[in-house]
C-alpha cells in the first residue's frame, strides 16, 4: 500500500483571509485534519462536510494529546494511505513543533510537505501596525519562547535594546519573570513594550507600557492567550507618530 502524505500547514494568525492559497486548497479537500486549538473556527469551517477534524489543543495546564502521540497519529494515518493535514496556528516551523513532526514522518518513510503560514509575530505586528524592523529604530529581530523549561537559565542578553526588537511567544503567564530577566540583563525599565492579544481578529487588543510595568499591565488588563509581547522602540515610536498624525488631522 502506498502511504499518504502529511501536510504541515500554517493557518496564519486567525483570519481565513490570511491563509495561503495552497493552505486553503488543502483544507478544502482534506478528509482528515489534525488541528491545534488556536486555529480559528472560520478556517475549520472551510473543511469538506465529511472531513474528520481531530483537535490536539495544547495549553500550559493541559494537553489534549502529548506531542509524541500526535506524531504517532499522523504517521499511523499516513501509513494507512490517508493524506493528513496537520493544521497549526501561525507557521509550522516557528514554535509550532513542525520540525518534530517532520522528523517523525521521515523516520517512518512517510512523505511530508510543509506549507508555510503567516507567523504569529508577522501577523500580530502587521495588525497592530508595529513594524518589527525600521531603519530608524530596529535592524535586528529575535523570536523567543516565554514558556519553556529553564527559562530563568536562558541567556537573552543582547536580544533586546537599542536597535533591536524582541518578540516573545507564549509569555503571558511568565510576564513577571520575563520582565525581571530582561532588566537583570541590563534592559532599561522604561523600554517600550506592546502586548498584542488576539491578533488579526475582531477582538484584538494592543496594550502598551514600559517593561517594568509589564506584569501589572498583563494582570490589570487580564490578558489571555493567544497574545504576543513585543519589546523595543518600534512599539512606541510608531504609535507616537500615529498619535501625532491623528492630532494634526483633528486640528485641521
From TrEMBL:
Top-level taxon in the UniProt lineage: Bacteria
Pathway in which the depicted protein is active: Porphyrin-containing compound metabolism; siroheme biosynthesis; precorrin-2 from uroporphyrinogen III: step 1/1
Record-level GO BP terms: methylation
Record InterPro entries: 4pyrrol_Mease (IPR000878), 4pyrrol_Methylase_sf (IPR035996), 4pyrrole_Mease_sub1 (IPR014777), 4pyrrole_Mease_sub2 (IPR014776), CobA/CysG_C (IPR006366), Siro_Cobalamin_biosynth (IPR050161), Uropor_MeTrfase_CS (IPR003043)
Gene3D superfamilies, sorted: Cobalt-precorrin-4 Transmethylase, Domain 1 (3.40.1010.10), Methyltransferase, Cobalt-precorrin-4 Transmethylase, Domain 2 (3.30.950.10)
Keywords: Methyltransferase, Porphyrin biosynthesis, S-adenosyl-L-methionine, Transferase
Location of the Tetrapyrrole methylase domain: 5-214
GO MF annotations in UniProt: uroporphyrin-III C-methyltransferase activity
NCBIfam families, alphabetized: cobA_cysG_Cterm, PRK06136.1
Protein family membership: Belongs to the precorrin methyltransferase family.
Name under which the protein is recorded: uroporphyrinogen-III C-methyltransferase
Annotated source species: Alteraurantiacibacter palmitatis
Taxonomic lineage: Bacteria, Pseudomonadati, Pseudomonadota, Alphaproteobacteria, Sphingomonadales
Amino acid at each position: 500500500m502506498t502511504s499518504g502524505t502529511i501536510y504541515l500547514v500554517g493557518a496564519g494568525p486567525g483570519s481565513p483571509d490570511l491563509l495561503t492559497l495552497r493552505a486553503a486548497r488543502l483544507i478544502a479537500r482534506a478528509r482528515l485534519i489534525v488541528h491545534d486549538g488556536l486555529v480559528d473556527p472560520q478556517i475549520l469551517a472551510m473543511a469538506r462536510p465529511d472531513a474528520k477534524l481531530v483537535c490536539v489543543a495544547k495549553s500550559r495546564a493541559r494537553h489534549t494529546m502529548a506531542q509524541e502521540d500526535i506524531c504517532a497519529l499522523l504517521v499511523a494515518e499516513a501509513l494507512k494511505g490517508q493524506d493528513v493535514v496537520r493544521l497549526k496556528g501561525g507557521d509550522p516551523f516557528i514554535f509550532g513543533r513542525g520540525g518534530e513532526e517532520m522528523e517523525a514522518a521521515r523516520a517512518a518513510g512517510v512523505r511530508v510537505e510543509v506549507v508555510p503560514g503567516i507567523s504569529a509575530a508577522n501577523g500580530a505586528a502587521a495588525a497592530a501596525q508595529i513594524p518589527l524592523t525600521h531603519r530608524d529604530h530596529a535592524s535586528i529581530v529575535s523570536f523567543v519562547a516565554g514558556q519553556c523549561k529553564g527559562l530563568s537559565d536562558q541567556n537573552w542578553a543582547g536580544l533586546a535594546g537599542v536597535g533591536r526588537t524582541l518578540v516573545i511567544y507564549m509569555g503571558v503567564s511568565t510576564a513577571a519573570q520575563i520582565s525581571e530577566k530582561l532588566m537583570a540583563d541590563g534592559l532599561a525599565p522604561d523600554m517600550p513594550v506592546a502586548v498584542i492579544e488576539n491578533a488579526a481578529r475582531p477582538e484584538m487588543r494592543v496594550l502598551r507600557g514600559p517593561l517594568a510595568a509589564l506584569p501589572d499591565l498583563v494582570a490589570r488588563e487580564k490578558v489571555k492567550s493567544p497574545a504576543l509581547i513585543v519589546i523595543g522602540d518600534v512599539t512606541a515610536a510608531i504609535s507616537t507618530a500615529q498619535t501625532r498624525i491623528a492630532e494634526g488631522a483633528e486640528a485641521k
